[in-house]
Specification:
The complex is a heterodimer of chains A (about 525) and B (about 575).
Chain A: H1 2-19, H2 25-38, E1 43-50, E2 56-62, E3 72-76, H3 84-99, H4 104-112, E4 114-118, H5 123-126, E5 168-172, E6 178-180, E7 188-190, E8 201-205, H6 249-260, E9 264-270, H7 285-295, H8 310-316, E10 321-325, H9 349-359, E11 365-371, E12 381-386, H10 396-413, E13 420-431, E14 434-443, E15 463-468, E16 474-477, E17 481-484, E18 492-500, E19 504-511, E20 515-522
Chain B: H1 2-18, H2 47-60, E1 65-72, E2 78-84, E3 97-102, H3 110-125, H4 130-138, E4 140-144, H5 149-157, E5 196-200, E6 206-209, E7 212-218, E8 227-232, H6 279-290, E9 294-302, E10 306-309, H7 322-338, E11 343-346, H8 347-351, H9 358-365, E12 369-375, H10 379-382, H11 394-401, E13 408-416, E14 420-427, H12 437-456, E15 461-472, E16 475-484, H13 493-498, E17 504-510, E18 513-522, E19 527-530, E20 537-540, E21 547-556, E22 561-567, E23 571-576
Helix pairs in contact in B: 2-3, 3-12, 7-12
């Protein structure tokens, strides 16, 4: 009890130190509230749900008038609870854009387009960044039985060296498969057994086998990961994925909102997945080119989606263009010749991080220190390694410029959207009171009107070309309503009708995601 | 409170008034002779009717039936669940459970009556049927007559065909034009049934069937016809050149909404937003997750006379492994015997491929042995093979000689705004898929018997043997044999493979010190697997059906002890020595 009391005394201090890094959940929320207060015409916020941990899932709508009638981009942060940068990028996008709201170009942008922002899909997990024991947590506040042994949270991390962070532990062992990195002995890499190399260490996350089942830290606090909980290739029963897809409150809240948002044509998310700087899809190359030009970054990682992820869901199941980027990654560090460094003989992310961070004047490494470990009574066990979070999130002082570039990208992205326009209207008098109308409709944008999986999806509206007549006019030839599954950019289609009557008729084209336009045509 | 009290008195009074005098009736074997709850099983009940019957059963048998609501439907109707067990004996959650639901598809109504008949029969027969008494001591039934009450009422109270609506009533823009439900069937003749439209046309390909002039048959390839068929009763309401293309009959399919192998609607027609995005299914899922004792399940559909098991899609062929299939086969083969005209089939290969079905989630997602029965088969018309096809004359004969033409709307002329002079007529919505009244009770009874057999074969655990052996030095070896007396294991293979439910716990409670615990892999040859931790409670992955598990403890010192078995799906057993 006494110990707890002492801890509590230190807590506010720790909180302060952390606050100099990334803003807390409360600060995130305060900034959103402030945005609405200062820009009521352009911003609104709404809490879609409360997570099992009691945290709000916010949606921020940027736009004016009737935002639901304008083509929209959805922007998602906190896709992974460890990715504080993503949440910052979403909030700062709103902040930076609204700072310039007096500019005509910004007012035009927000008058013609809508952005739906979801700053944080993993607030339960993200809170761990600010807690007294920091570890890279992805799971929400649900109690789950990650190792499926009938008990929940019975084997969590343990802070063996008492430094307030969960790092790694290495154990000298005859069956170890790790060895020291030849260029940086702080780093452990896998021994290449095929080349006759021998390992010396077991490498595990910091902790004790609390339930004595032979596995370490396999069922700790932390439930379902948002980025494993979606429907596309969901890994049912695997740790963090859930008993079935979309089992979580926050996942449902987001999907319910998006499925009703027929005006959304593109989804941009910030996560470890990356199809923005490295893109195999020819149809959306134009978007990647814009991103890479705006960011000017190289050497982007391209991890493979592991199932249940949000980026794949938005494309495969939601049927919208879907883009994801980590927003930042550890740059490839050049050897420091002053320190007589050479290029790495073995490429390794941790070694590269340590070299880069040293050049930045950062030190986020805990030196290996021997501890007494109850599970390895007669073996050398050392705890140490890179701090949690720092390889995923840049130092906070770098966020401002990264956010500026992403703000630029997100504002420029709307210029690529599909744009359906009536290019040409011809009317021809066939006989008395009989007019033939011919129109050319084209997609003048840079993207198709519908993504590949929008076809036959109930939740994507078709591209409509509809002729509206009054009671006294009569359709003699042609179809009153055409519903098109897709129109590629820079293509055109012709529609014609024969109408009996006088006055004018109206042609309506578009869809909620493209925008609906009407044009009056006089009969001959 | 007072209101509820007086309400129940009124209820009891009305029940006693309705019952027949005991001396006026003579028991027919196998049927409650003078039931407390008077119910006719030769007609259908809408949601209000089901609600009333559920309440009557719960009020009449408070020690056997409890009524709860799993939640609300989209339109706010209760999803009633009758929990049937002998509440005086044991804890409901520690008895193997049999879950039964009906009516997932709105028009497939009789599942609700079949389920409700089961609840009624079990409660009314408990008093004088020893088998039922034992069954309700060991097992618990969770009976949800309709998991789609909105759809049920819309089928009954709105104009419909026998096949509409299939879905619930949550609106969907099926044709993607931005409008919702803008062009649906129209009950042009105002009789509550959507039938067919035909038009006299010498270029048509149909003529009157010479065997029964109500029927239309196709003419031969070289023959001229008299009629063309114009589809179901309706008009082009929205003037888009299509008739009846966006109505409420097929918004989505509630049976493509479950959390195993789910696919979006462009792959699996009828899927909604994500698994359990239909509120009724979500309520069922939440109930099942809170009742890990459910070991067996039955869902009722129509029609065709089938006992269906998964997989729904070929992707899951290996999910249903041979050990589990053997159990499915054994129970369903008995079903074929109990329900003449019903055939045991596998969805993906004998019917069609469907992702996200209820039976696949129950089995693959929760490890529960589950069947879907397609109720009513044309076989029952004349007790011989026949079909539902309009070109098979047996439907017309059955309607004519046994229903006296009550199943058919006679053709009648109508002035159609788009088609001109047409005739409207055809089978009523309550013919073809729903049982005719006089066959309803008999088939409900047979299907119930199948579910009782199914539930009977959920695990029944007992401790069949406890042996002690003195090892010297104050040590004793205690060996216990745990038996499962029924077909089903405590964990299906799918469950064992994915660790869906926790292991079974076999515990030695004693004041003496337990120094080691182990599972005997071969009792006779003394081969064992020693448990790493906590030797008093031995964790076993499974207790096989009609099989045993042997465990052994080494105990230091003397003391009384008991052996307990605690299994989520197998129930509990205790032996005191």
């Amino acid at each position: 009890m006494k110990k707890l009391f002492l801890m509590a005394c230190f807590l506010p201090l720790i909180g302060q130190i952390k606050a100099q890094q990334y803003p807390t959940l409360q600060e995130q929320q305060n900034r959103l509230t402030l945005l609405v207060k200062n820009n009521p015409k352009w911003v609104s916020i709404q809490s879609l749900a409360k997570t099992s941990g009691g945290k709000d899932i916010w949606v921020v709508t940027l736009g004016t008038g009737k935002p639901e009638t304008k083509p929209a981009i959805a922007v998602i942060g906190g896709v992974e609870g460890t990715h504080l940068l993503g949440t910052e990028l979403v909030i700062q996008f709103a902040e930076k854009l609204l700072k310039q709201i007096d500019k005509d170009s910004v007012q035009k942008l927000l008058s013609e387009n809508t952005y739906y922002l979801f700053p944080n899909m993993s607030p339960d997990a993200m809170e761990t960044y600010f807690s007294k024991l920091a570890f890279e947590r992805l799971g929400n506040a649900n109690n789950t039985d990650d190792d499926r042994d009938g008990k929940t949270n019975e084997d969590t991390f343990d802070d063996l060296d008492g430094n307030g962070k969960i790092t790694m532990m290495r154990i000298e062992s005859p069956v170890g498969i790790y060895k020291l990195h030849p260029d940086d002995p702080r780093v452990l890499i896998k021994a290449d057994i095929s080349k006759g190399e021998k390992g010396k260490y077991l490498l595990l996350s910091e902790g004790i086998d609390n339930d004595k089942d032979g596995q370490f830290n396999e069922d700790g606090v932390g439930g379902i990961h948002f980025n494993k909980n979606l429907t596309y290739k969901h890994k049912t029963f695997s740790a963090g994925a859930g008993e079935f897809p979309v089992s979580e409150i926050e996942t449902r809240a987001l999907l319910d909102f998006l499925y009703d948002a027929f005006n959304v044509y593109a989804v941009v998310s910030f996560s470890s997945l990356n199809n923005l700087s490295a893109n195999d899809d020819k149809i959306t190359t134009v978007v990647s080119e814009l991103y890479n030009k705006t960011m000017g970054a190289k050497d982007a990682p391209k991890p493979t989606a592991e199932g249940g992820d949000f980026m794949s869901w938005a494309y495969q199941h939601y049927g919208r263009f879907s883009f994801s980027t980590p927003g930042w990654w550890v740059p490839k560090a050049k050897p420091d010749t002053a320190k007589k460094e050479k290029a790495f003989t073995v490429v390794d992310a941790t070694a590269n991080y340590l070299r880069w961070s040293a050049q930045q004047g950062l030190n986020h490494f805990t030196e290996w220190k021997t501890v007494q470990h109850p599970d390895f009574p007669n073996q050398v066990v050392q705890v140490g390694g890179v701090d949690p979070y720092v390889m995923i999130n840049p130092p906070y002082k770098m966020v401002d410029s990264i956010a500026s570039k992403h703000t630029m990208f997100l504002t420029k992205l709307v210029s690529l959207k599909p744009q359906v326009v009536i290019q040409k209207i011809e009317t021809q008098k066939l006989s008395n009171g009989l007019t033939k109308i011919t129109i050319d409709v084209s997609n003048a944008g840079m993207l198709p009107t519908h993504s590949k999986f929008a076809d036959r999806n109930y939740f994507v509206k078709r591209l409509k070309v509809a002729l509206q007549l009054n009671d006294k006019q009569q359709l003699i030839g042609g179809k009153k309503l055409e519903l098109l599954n897709n129109m590629e950019p820079h293509t055109m289609q012709q529609f014609s009708w024969i109408v009996k009557g006088t006055g004018s008729v109206t042609v309506e084209t578009g869809s909620p995601a493209i925008g609906l336009t009407t044009k009056a045509i006089s009969l001959q | 409170m007072k209101k509820i009290y007086s309400f129940s008195i009124a209820l009891i009074l009305s029940i006693s008034l309705m019952a027949q005098e005991a001396n006026q009736v003579f028991k027919a074997a196998g049927t409650p002779v003078n039931p407390k709850v008077q119910a006719s099983w030769n007609r259908y009940y809408d949601h209000a009717g089901i609600t009333a019957l559920c309440k009557k059963i719960a009020a009449a048998y408070p020690d056997l039936a409890k009524l709860t609501s799993l939640g609300k439907s989209y339109a706010g109707r209760d999803l009633w669940c009758l929990t049937i067990t002998d509440f005086k004996k044991g804890n409901e959650l520690q008895k193997p459970g049999m879950y039964i639901d009906g009516n997932i598809h709105s028009n497939e109504i009789q599942g609700a009556e079949f389920a409700l008949y089961t609840a009624w029969y079990l409660t009314e027969s408990f008093g004088d049927t020893k088998f039922i008494q034992e069954l309700l001591t060991d097992k618990v039934f969770y009976i949800v007559p309709s998991i789609n009450p909105d759809g049920r009422d819309s089928y009954m109270h709105q104009p419909n065909t026998a096949s509409s609506p299939r879905s619930g009533v949550k609106p969907v823009d099926n044709d993607g034009d931005g409008l919702v439900n803008e062009d649906w069937y129209d009950d042009l003749d105002g009789d509550g049934h959507i039938t067919m439209m035909r038009r006299k046309n010498i270029n048509g390909r149909y003529k009157l069937d010479p065997r029964d002039s109500r029927n239309m048959v196709m003419v031969g390839a070289d023959e001229q016809g008299d009629y063309e068929l114009l589809g179901m009763e309706g008009i082009d309401n929205d003037g888009d050149g299509r008739v009846n293309e966006d109505g409420y009959a097929f918004e989505y399919d509630p049976n493509r909404d479950w959390g195993w192998g789910w696919q979006p609607n462009y792959i699996q027609n009828g899927a909604y937003k994500y698994p359990f995005s239909i509120p009724e299914n979500r309520a069922v899922m939440e109930f099942v997750m809170k009742h890990p004792n459910i070991a067996a399940a039955q869902s009722y559909h129509n029609a065709g006379g089938m006992i269906l098991r998964g997989p729904g899609a070929s992707a899951d062929v290996t999910t249903y492994n041979s050990q589990d299939v053997a159990i499915y086969d054994a129970i369903a083969k008995k079903g074929e015997e109990l329900m003449p005209g019903y055939k045991y089939l596998v969805v993906y290969k004998d019917l069609y491929s469907a992702y996200g079905g209820e039976l696949d989630w129950f089995y693959a997602g929760r490890g529960i042995y589950t069947y879907s029965n397609e109720l009513w088969t044309p076989y029952l018309m004349f007790m011989k093979e026949s079909t539902r096809s309009p070109f098979d004359n047996s439907s017309y004969n059955f309607d004519k000689y046994l229903l006296f033409k009550d199943g058919f709307v006679d053709w009648k002329e109508y002035d159609h705004p788009q088609y001109g002079k047409v005739e409207i007529g055809g089978f009523k919505k309550n013919f073809g898929r729903a049982h005719p009244g006089f066959l309803l009770e008999s088939d409900a009874h047979r299907n119930m018997a199948f579910s009782i057999y199914h539930s009977y074969h959920t695990p029944k655990l007992s401790i069949s043997e406890i042996k002690e052996k003195d090892l010297g030095d104050g040590l004793t070896e205690v060996t216990a044999v745990i038996a499962n007396e029924r077909l089903m294991p405590t964990h299906s293979s799918q469950d064992v493979k994915n660790k869906i439910e926790r292991p079974d716990y076999i515990t030695l409670n004693t004041t003496a010190k337990i120094v080691a615990g182990m599972i005997m892999t071969d009792k006779d040859l003394n081969l064992s697997k020693i448990q790493k931790n906590n030797p008093s409670t031995i964790e076993v992955n499974n207790i096989p059906g009609l099989g045993t598990v042997t465990v052994k403890w080494i105990v230091e010192g003397k003391g009384k002890y008991t052996v307990n078995v605690d299994s989520k799906k197998g129930g509990i057993a205790t032996n005191i020595k």
